[in-house]
Input
Amino acid sequence: EFGSINKASAAYHLSQQGISKMVRELEAELGCKLLNRDMNGVTPTQYGAYLLKECQVILEKKNFICSHILQVQDASREVIHLGMAFGIISALPYWLISGFEKAHPYVQIEYADHTDFYLETLLKKDEFDFCITTGVMDGDRFSTELLLKEPVYLCIPRTHELYGKDSIQMADLREQRYAMFNTQFHIRHHFDAACRNAGFEPRIEISSGDFNSLKEIAQYHNLLFVVPKHTIRTDDPVLRYYQFPDEKFTWDIYFVKKKNKTLTENMEMFLNYVKRQILYA
Output
């Protein structure tokens, strides 16, 4: 955290020699180098970064135990109601919820998937404590925190005229036909806006909320499609993936809550846990 053994020594009232000795002993025990040292201080190696992430989970668990140990007989399981937009669960580490619940046995995460805009409606009705979604329309009522930003890619069927084109510009997309997510998804509105900013209305042949169906229809009917980066397959034999020409068109994941919503201690821990897992994913 300090990037310096000297600063850590002053902050924790330990000698520099003592801290260095503890680090050397830990490196010897684990059989790997944890810190890179130079004239500017220290930075974690890949092993050190991994160890730090896991130790933060352990320390959170320790703090939780210490603050609740005297309440064990009366302890109740806190249920956190989490809404997620369709597609988000596949962009996050698959162990996200189970890992948090394992580290915090008195917390249960109950989540449900919905389209972006319907999720916002349910959050207004307090059916969720908070949501992880791809944006909000009502910025006056909700606060958002960006968790992840992904580029968007064109999916081009092998039989499409753009499949072999080396460089694709927005002008190349003007007369094309598309399979697209329906208007309940932010990605649809961002796609429409990118096309309008380029001076044309996109010709959308079919829209749906079903990702797999859209992909199959696009291939069968020779239509273009767009997807966030985490869904692409580099070894796909029938589709070519090309980053969308307008780089401002991205797929963003946000933590969203009502502005008047006060998070409990466990909710704060879950949010911090999510941010760390995304950072190191």
